[in-house]
Amino acid sequence: MKKLTLSLIAVILFTIYALGWGLDELFSQYQSNDQETINADELSPYISLGRYLAKNIDQQSNTQQFVDSWEDTQQLSLTVTSLDEFQLPMSLQQSFNQGEPLMLESDENISIHFILPKHQQVMTLVVERSLVFKGNDKIKITLTLVFYLGIIFILFIWLYPLIRDLQALKRGAKVVGNGDLTHRINMPKRSYITEVQDEFNRMANRIETLVSDNEMLGNAVAHDLRTPLARLRFGIEMLQDTDDHIKRKKYENRMNNDINEMEKLVDVLLCYARLEQNMVAIDKHELNLLSSIHQCVDAFKTPDNNNSWEIEAVSPPYLVLADEKYLNMLINNLLKNAVQYSKSKIKISLEQVDGQVHFSVEDDGVGIPRHKRQDLLKPFCRGSDSNEITGFGMGLAIVDRITQWHNSQLFIDDSLTLGGAKFTVIFSQLAKT
């Protein structure tokens, strides 16, 4: 909105200055040209009146008495002075003595002088300028109207792109509200409301993701809960039908395992829901990524795990800004995924490139087809051999959410060294060393 405010102020100031200056120049030019026309045309009635009065006054025996009897008005007055007191340059004196009127202008009025040859006097008819230049009021009103209309026109030109973009935003909101969650707004980069557009598109992306995940969660939860529930029901029925202590113990153990599986599923769902709905508090501080990886790898090195581990670290240190709890969750989910799908080898790589830390986990499993990679980031989606792998298919979905919380990126590729899958997380928020 800062761009919008500054643009509006600049347009208003420029419009007022440009229009004001242009109309002022136009009025000044019109006034100077108009004065020349008025001298020749508009003053002709007053010149004729002055000639008539000068002729009649010159025939009077007492010119001053006639002038005194003349009724002065605010816009027209008459005076008589001696010719000796009326000094003129030689260039004007000859034509004036021959009867040509002499016009003199001031800021307030126009004086028209006539010679009275019989009495050797000068009669002066004073005409107020407003009486002569009465057309200027219309010009001023017209130019004022043009000024305001010009401001309105230029502001309309400025507002048109804003109105157009707001209409596009309105249509986009209506389309999304009607259920088309794939619709996005695409405005010109010079738009005043690009920030609003970006926020709207982010909101639409989030709504689409939430709706899609909710649908998938509903379907997957129904499937994953139905199986242990069915086994529980079957176990209860079997318990009711047998008195054999050994069989009852066997059924009870199976029921406990089913209950544990359901608890794990509920825990995973709650964890994912908190991540998805922004219900977690991220406490970022400086962490050594390599140390966190070593701790997590050590936890996976158990007697029943026969995988060989390789950790390759280039150009340390690897200090990132992250929440320790969720960083460990991210690492553990990637390692668990590699353990589940690998045959015997797992490789972990760390590298610092252009101010970013690249954290990769590779395995020697069957790999992931390119067209299925994005689907694996959705909840309850598993690999091609998922029937042989335990779990709920939530690990990578949780990893994806944690990377988003840490303004990082997650990529899925083929492992060039081991032949399986390769997961890479790029951390851009690094601690200052």
TrEMBL record:
Organism (species): Psychrosphaera aquimarina
PROSITE patterns in the record: HAMP (PS50885), HIS_KIN (PS50109)
GO molecular function list: ATP binding
Annotated keywords: ATP-binding, Cell membrane, Kinase, Membrane, Nucleotide-binding, Phosphoprotein, Transferase, Transmembrane, Transmembrane helix
Regions that span the bilayer: 145-163
Catalytically driven reaction(s): ATP + protein L-histidine = ADP + protein N-phospho-L-histidine
Superkingdom assignment: Bacteria
Domain Histidine kinase per the UniProt entry, residue ranges: 220-431
Major localisation: membrane
Protein localization: Cell membrane
Protein's UniProt name: histidine kinase
